[in-house]
Amino acid sequence: MNTKYWAAFSSIEELDSTFVQRLYNYFGDIERAYNASERDLEQIEGLSINKADEFLVKRDKTNPDKVFEEIENRGINVLTFDDSRYPYMLSQIHNPPMVLYYKGDLLGCNLEKTVAFVGSRKASQNGRDSVRSIITELGNTDICIVSGLAEGIDSVSHRSAIDNNLKTIGVIASGFDFKYPASNRDLYEKLEHGFGAVVTEYYPTFEPVKFRFPQRNRIVTGLSYGTVVGEAAIKSGALISANLTLEQGRELMCIPGSINNKNTEGVYKLLKNGATMVTSGEDILNALNWEIKCPEKEQKAIPEKYSQICDLVSVEPKGFDEIQAQTGIETNELLNLLTMMELEGYIEQDEGDRYKIL
């Protein structure tokens, strides 16, 4: 069984996927690559001598059977680079992961219609709402949403996908012994049990250390036909993902936001440099040339007594005092109207006790 040799390679933290790929390409067989002698390695043009020596030392302390047993004991699935089921789009990037560890139904996701959503961990309410709205428009199709299971835009993307009957893949920057951030533990559970999959290139014991997050990003974008940037500061992980998207020859799309938000500075820079502007689910379909008919959203008729308030909060969320100042409605009457509108599903309160249209 060759899988144990792929896993043994991946269990050595000092090795990266480029080293393993070079050995695999040279020998044409992962078992031969793993058992190569020092003399064999010396024949590989351009291979780092120090890296080869490090591999030989670590290999002597690694038991492939034990490595694979640890994976099986944790209930983790393994997909290797030489497997015909390995995601095609990911195989085409410059530095594809040699092993994908996953929980959930990765192969049940439609890997031919994948789109990534990336953005700030400290996303604004407007940014979250925009991502949620766009993904809602893609609901009930076979599109698969890919993101990084971080806070902010990532978690909103995964949750919106689940809420709208879409499969979603979360790519993490550690092994499965860690669930980071802790606030997304429920998302891990949902993706592992029916809503998609959690994926990583890292052996179960590898920690979520800082340098692994940018490496993780290449898998998020590499799995996808295009990437949508929700919010991104000038210096951010989302901009790293944007650059990776372009390097991989994929479609880069951006959601415009408030010009006064620091987290949209990177977005507008990308738009000025030619990224596709996205304000709806249809924009994504057009950019990726996907012929999918999204179900039309049923428009709820708004009673005349609610129309003035709905018009106000449809532009942006407003607080009670703002609504009263602009409508002149008496306090008790306005309280009753807002309560009834919430109960009947016309508006809802977001962060900061502000009302927004549904």
- Total helical segments: 17
Range of helix content: 40-55%
- Specify the overall morphology: elongated
CATH architecture title of the largest domain: 3-Layer(aba) Sandwich
Distance between the termini: 54 Å
How many beta-strand segments? 11
Domain count: the total is: 3
Low-confidence stretches: none
CATH fold topology of the largest domain: Rossmann fold
Give a quick set of tags describing it.
elongated, Rossmann fold, two-stranded antiparallel ribbon, 9-stranded mixed β-sheet, Arc Repressor Mutant, subunit A, 358 residues, 3 domains, DNA polymerase, domain 1, alpha/beta, 45% helix
Report on this structure.
The chain is an alpha/beta fold and 358 residues long. It folds into 3 domains: 1-67, DNA polymerase, domain 1 (Orthogonal Bundle), CATH 1.10.150; 106-288, Rossmann fold; 304-357, Winged helix-like DNA-binding domain superfamily/Winged helix DNA-binding domain (Arc Repressor Mutant, subunit A), CATH 1.10.10. It is 45% helix and 13% strand. The protein has helices spanning 3-10, 17-27, 30-34, 38-42, 49-59, 64-73, 88-91, 125-137, 153-163, 185-195, 212-222, 237-247, 265-272, 281-288, 304-315, 320-327, 331-343, and strands at 77-80, 99-104, 114-118, 144-147, 167-171, 196-200, 226-229, 251-254, 276-277, 347-350, 354-357. Strands 1-2-6-5-4-3-7-8-9 form a 9-stranded mixed beta sheet, with helices on both faces. Helix 13 links the parallel strand 8 (251-254) and strand 9 (276-277). Helix 1 crosses helix 6 (64-73), helix 8 (125-137) runs parallel beside helix 9 and helix 11 packs across helix 12 (237-247). The chain starts with a helix and ends with a strand.
